[in-house]
Amino acid sequence: MKKLFLSITIIFMLSNPLYAEDFTEFSLGYSDWDFDGYLSADGPSIGFSSQQGQFRYGVGIENISYNWVGTPSVTMWDVGFDYGFGDWEEGTPFVGLSYVDSNASDSSGEVVYTLGYGRTSTSEVNYSFGVADCGDCEDSTVGFGVSWPVGDSNNFIGFGYAVSGDIDVISVGWSKKW
Fold first, then answer.
1. What is the average pLDDT across 74-101?
2. Of 52, 40, 50, 13, nearest to 29 (Cα)?
3. DSSP 3-state assignment of 8?
4. How far is CA 172 from CA 46, 51, 85, 98, 139, in A?
5. Fewer CB atoms inside 10 Å of the end CB: C or N, the chain?
6. What is the mean pLDDT of residues 128-141?
């Protein structure tokens, strides 16, 4: 379950498009989970975030439906923030802290730490990559994300990939900022 927590945190962090100026954002996404090549799951996500100066704040929720009979779906949520050490538009190292939990009966919430590098722009391709870990997790999660502006409408599309041990997650997303 801890691998799921790390994966969902990095997916929310990396698949949602990033911006260089202050903004508020609403995002929708979809992810496909692969568990060591023999089990899979997928599901939608929704998020809300804000960037103010060097800080980014966000909250997200995702519902994962396993693709095998008799297994209930899992709803996970996270809330957290990132701090960029430089100019987001030029590219900057950042650190993040988040709390992740789910409705799974055997889970307890986890505090997740992230170290990464990201570049954000309101008119160009954005990217981010990072490593997330919790204090007692078996494997760290490594992931990246990229997003592109769509026309002049403040719409962005994004793609993300994360891996944690034997779990691979591919995600796509759309967002609207104002």
1. 93
2. 13
3. helix
4. 12, 21, 27, 21, 24
5. C
6. 89
